[in-house]
Design brief:
Blueprint lengths: L2 H14 L1 H12 L3 E4 L6 H6 L3 E4 L21 H11 L8 E5 L3 H8 L7 E4 L8 H22 L5 H27 L6 H10 L5 H16 L9 E7 L5 H9 L2 E8 L17 H11 L13 H12 L3 E7 L3 H17 L3 E6 L7 H13 L1
Parallel strand pairs: 1-2, 1-3, 3-4, 5-6, 5-7, 7-8
Helix pairs in contact: 1-8, 1-9, 6-11, 7-9, 12-13
Length: 374
């Protein structure tokens, strides 16, 4: 096994076994984990406590039954899966669960949490251009900080926060470099491997993830760049999984050269900037800088243009929208983007993603036809 294969295997194992990653961390440090609900949260604050921030993004192929009691069938499948798992006690080992509530379903779920872990809820302001929005979010973060300190029995110092901010900024920067390297080496970093590198960062300390990804980048860049004979695509949406779906991309020679996925590149898009202001203010300011996201209000609707710019930068052949079933914010963006793509002659395809689905033959047929048309 080569060094690249060994690193990818390690990251894939972590991505596939979050419970083991949490248990290993607790055995190593004596501290547990704090659940991080989609999509954005001040993870640096959790990191500064010494607890492990653990992403909660549902599950794949699990039949929904208990969740139907608490959520309507038209709630998005991520939230359905999260509700099903928490009804089964899957999250009861978490020290707390951190919720931002940018959509109606997340608001509903935060109020109907059935697990034993305490829930910490905060709101991202949507009129983001105002200085008042920054001040509001600072107050929200102060409440989050106080509740974390209460539930975890720790004190979060500014020095610890600054250290965590630096660690997270470095991880985001390294991951942005990884995106470019993966685009140059699709024979080495295929769709499944690329996703695993992103997903593993949800279940491990960012400094350890950074170390592994730096090593991976160095090993890959030492190889010669080979011409890609397939097609290159940009993918956008909330998430693009499971691996069975990504295997279809590999089968038809579709290299993912960049993405606008909430679970992946949106998490690394914006850094917390340096400045004289306190850490909470600068963390709040980062939300004001977020762009190209369906849950971060943009009255100018610049997401379609952003995706077309990515196509130009990467030489991509098409955009594929992974539409999360029953995700209202994503559904509101899609018609605007589709019109812009059609007006500019941009090849594009929308596929539906549903975490409860176990058969992908329909998606496979559509992707095969799309590749043939390109």
């Amino acid at each position: 096994m080569s060094k690249v294969e060994a690193i990818l295997s390690q990251l894939k194992d972590i991505a596939a076994n979050p419970k083991k990653a949490m248990d290993d961390y607790k055995a190593e440090t004596g501290k547990g984990a704090v659940g991080i609900m989609p999509i954005y949260a001040p993870e640096e604050m959790v990191h500064a406590t010494g607890y492990l921030p653990m992403g909660i993004w549902g599950a794949q192929g699990k039949t929904i039954s208990k969740a139907r009691t608490y959520l309507p069938p038209f709630a998005c499948s991520i939230m359905q899966q999260v509700m099903e798992l928490q009804c089964e006690g899957a999250y009861d080992d978490l020290a707390a669960v951190l919720f931002s509530v940018p959509c109606d379903t997340l608001k509903c779920l935060s109020q109907k949490w059935k697990g034993t872990s305490p829930v910490i809820v905060f709101t991202h302001p949507q009129n983001r251009g105002l200085e008042a929005a920054n001040k509001f979010l600072v107050k929200e973060y102060e409440l989050v900080k106080a509740q974390l300190e209460h539930y975890l029995g720790v004190t979060i110092t500014n020095a610890a926060l600054e250290r965590s901010i630096a660690i997270y900024n470095e991880n985001r920067q390294v991951m942005r470099e990884f995106v470019k390297v993966a685009a140059d080496y699709p024979q080495v970093i295929d769709a499944v491997s690329r996703h695993a590198v992103f997903k593993a960062r949800q279940f491990m300390l960012k400094e350890k993830h950074t170390e592994l990804v730096k090593e991976l980048i160095a090993e890959v860049k030492a190889m010669p760049v080979q011409p890609w004979t397939g097609k290159k695509v940009i993918v956008a949406g909330i998430l693009l999984e499971p691996n069975e779906l990504l295997d279809i991309f590999n089968e038809f020679g579709l290299a993912i050269v960049d993405d606008d996925l909430a679970q992946e590149s949106r998490q690394i898009r914006v850094d917390v900037l340096d400045g004289e202001e306190g850490p909470l203010y600068r963390m709040a300011k980062a939300w004001q800088q977020m762009y190209g996201c369906s849950v971060a209000t943009d009255t100018k609707k610049g997401r379609g243009k952003m995706l077309m710019n990515k196509m130009t930068q990467t030489g991509a052949d098409a955009v594929i929208i992974a539409q999360m079933k029953f995700c209202d914010p994503e559904e509101w963006d899609y018609p605007v983007m589709y019109r812009e793509f059609e007006e500019r002659g941009v090849k594009n395809l929308m596929i539906e993603v549903d975490q409860e689905v176990t058969s992908f033959e329909q998606v496979k047929t559509r992707l095969q036809s799309f590749v043939e048309m390109m």
